[in-house]
Design goal:
The complex is a heterodimer of chains A (291) and B (336). Chain A has 291 residues and is mainly alpha-helical. Helices cover 73% and strands 3% of the residues of chain A. Chain A is globular, with a radius of gyration of 19 Å. Chain B has 336 residues and is mostly helical. Chain B has 15 helices and two strands. In chain B, strands 1-2 form a two-stranded antiparallel sheet. The chains are: A mainly alpha (291), B mainly alpha (336). The interface between A and B is large, with 51 and 47 residues.
């Protein structure tokens, strides 16, 4: 029992970070029906940026979010303008899947040229500190990671519900044509949201680098998890992504202690497939129609 | 036989004759080696097109079945023993049919979802298969890889049997595509691609049609994987279930023209030799990856429909222009 509770604590803490990564993915899908397969590679890119800032300039990885996230926002805007926006026609969504995949390969290639394929890890002085709460071991870094992710997710949802920009975004999600008719600049909303999604990946990447060792190839593992999360949560649903990410964290942690760590990520896929059998649209998703 | 069918058969026959003659004329091992890889990608891309190109459902999991085919053949070798020489080639149809049959339940679940979700589920399938190859250590030997017995072919023309096997699979894939395109199944798939709701409303059994195309596509992919495993005689999870192989086949299909008959093979014939050249020039250096990504971007952004459809449009336009130029002359003669 003790082991399972410990696993659940660990799973929730990690799940929070995945929720942050997935939030950007699902937000972008909701607005422009684009799946950004490069989200995982962008997370890794941000992890490297934060690692570089830490090892060369001594900037704390959590503080580095303040630098990395805005920088990656600009990158995201550029990617949307150059690669994603030019896709037109009825199968623009499917094409975007492949374009962003190519982008992911490009990022992986560039990172391997600069940083080689050895595993890195951002290790600040407090990396090994942990607390003892009621007999359960709680890592300081993981709590900080979860806290950072939670704060950013709350900020994101406030941005979406309380601001003029957020209202424009939600209007575009619900009905792009009507939103445009009411004076929403759809192009601007799309570009800014893509940047926002990428900056979420960036913030999560800085955190990720402290929790896990990473190398340029790590994005394959990441993207397969992130995609499973957004599909389970329901494409386009922010709440769904958070619930699914936490579920994934907990399920994987329990399987890891009860069965074997090597079956952890496999177990989540089984859950996903079983769930899709009952509810193809995911937890909070709307039925996707062919159009 | 209709005229278009006769032209098709003639074109296919000429292609088959040229393809089979090639390794008997050219003996340089490195050229035949590139030939084997080119045909491998051509067959994979054709198989991918058979399902994804015609139905419009983009599957990103093709490499999973390539890998399953490779591992099925390898494991049969290691644990049952099917002899060497040409024997493994005879086992291929069984491997293909078996893997494709086993994939149907997962396909059925994945096909309950619509386009984007389907693409994602199949992509996850790819990573899960790779993980299975790592984890099922007792039969796949995990990350240490699986060794197949060295084929006992004459060293001078060692690559030729593999070349011919890959070519046979390409012909099989093209033949299947040709038949599908000329059949009711092809019409059903195209209807699904255009408007699935309407197709369903018209009484087309959309799920059955998609599953048949899926089965054919996976069977060919698995057989290609089997030949590839026997050719390399050593497979491990990252090489057998490789996202790059997947994306390669998709890229070639897009370059040649998805939804066409010859497009995917043409894409492979253009790209694989370039790819092999880049690999030897840039080595295993990751610059190769960047080059790959760049080519992909250019194809998707500049030529999203592919070579064959663009070329066909151009020919139609030229013919149209000739017809309008000839038009007035005919009328003048009529006046005179």
């Amino acid at each position: 029992m003790h082991q399972i509770v410990q696993a659940i604590i660990l799973g929730v803490l990690i799940g929070g970070v995945y929720a942050l990564m997935a939030s950007g993915l699902t937000l972008v899908f909701g607005i422009m029906k684009v799946i950004n397969v490069a989200q995982g590679a962008l997370v890794i890119l941000a992890a490297y940026l934060s690692y570089w800032l830490f090892s060369h300039l001594g900037i704390d990885p959590f503080l580095s979010i303040l630098v990395v996230a805005p920088a990656m926002f600009v990158l995201g805007v550029a990617v949307q303008l150059v690669f994603v926006r030019s896709l037109r026609g009825p199968d623009a969504s499917e094409l975007s899947l492949l374009v962003t995949w190519a982008l992911a390969l490009g990022i992986e290639g560039v990172l391997s040229v600069f940083f080689k394929t050895t595993f890195r890890s951002t290790l600040p002085s407090y990396a090994d500190r942990s607390w003892d709460v009621l007999g359960y071991n709680v890592g300081f870094v993981r709590v900080l990671a979860f806290g950072t992710s939670a704060v950013l997710l709350i900020l994101l949802s406030l941005l979406l519900t309380r601001t003029r920009f957020g209202r424009a975004v939600r209007a575009t999600v619900q009905n792009p044509t009507a939103a445009t008719l009411l004076g929403v600049d759809a192009n601007r909303v799309q570009t800014l949201s893509f940047g926002l999604g990428v900056s979420m990946a960036a913030a999560a990447g800085a955190v990720y680098g402290v929790i896990y060792p990473f190398n340029p190839g790590s994005h394959y593992d990441l993207i397969s998890r992130l995609l499973s999360i957004v599909v389970l949560g329901g494409l386009g649903s922010l709440g769904g992504a958070v619930v699914a990410a936490l579920a994934m964290g907990v399920i994987e942690a329990i399987v890891a202690v009860e069965i074997s760590p090597i079956w952890a990520s496999f177990s989540f896929f089984v859950v996903l497939i079983t769930f899709l059998l009952v509810r193809p649209q995911g937890i909070f998703g709307l039925r996707e129609r062919t159009l | 036989m209709s005229r278009s069918a006769a032209v098709g058969v003639l074109r296919g026959g000429a292609f088959a004759a040229a393809g089979i003659a090639f390794p008997f004329v050219v003996h340089a091992a490195w050229i035949v080696n590139i030939g084997v890889l080119t045909l491998m990608y051509a067959a994979l891309a054709t198989a991918w097109n058979l399902f994804s190109g015609y139905s419009g459902y983009i599957s990103l999991g093709q490499a999973a079945f390539f890998g399953l085919g490779a591992y099925t053949l390898g494991i049969t070798f290691a644990h049952v023993g099917i002899g060497s020489g040409y024997n493994p080639f005879y086992a291929l149809p069984l491997v293909g049919a078996g893997v494709a049959l086993a994939s149907l339940p997962v396909a059925w679940i994945a096909l309950r979802t619509r386009h984007m979700t389907f693409a994602i589920v199949t992509l996850t399938l790819l990573f899960v298969t790779q993980q299975l190859a790592f984890n099922l250590h007792s039969i796949t030997h995990g990350s240490s890889g699986l060794m197949l017995p060295t084929p006992s072919f004459d060293i001078a023309d060692y690559d030729r049997p593999f070349y011919l096997a890959m070519f046979a699979l390409l012909l099989l894939g093209l033949g299947a595509c040709w038949l599908v395109l000329r059949s009711k199944l092809g019409l059903m798939l195209l209807a699904i691609r255009e408007d699935e709701e309407k197709a369903r409303g018209l009484g087309i059994r959309v799920t059955t049609a998609k599953l048949i195309a899926w089965w054919l596509s996976v069977a060919v992919s698995a057989m290609v994987g089997g030949v590839w495993a026997y050719y390399l005689t050593f497979i491990y999870p990252e090489s057998a279930v490789d996202p790059l192989v997947m994306i390669g086949a998709v890229l070639m299909t897009f370059l040649g023209g998805r939804g066409t008959l010859w497009g995917p093979a043409i894409g492979a014939f253009l790209l694989v030799p370039v790819q092999q050249y880049m690999l030897t020039r840039l080595g295993a250096s990751q610059l190769y990856l960047v080059g790959y990504a760049a080519v992909f971007m250019v194809v998707l952004l500049v030529l999203p429909r592919g070579i064959v459809p663009s070329l066909r449009d151009w020919i139609d336009r030229v013919r149209e222009r000739q017809r309008t130029r000839r038009g007035p002359i005919v009328r003048e003669e009529a006046h005179a």
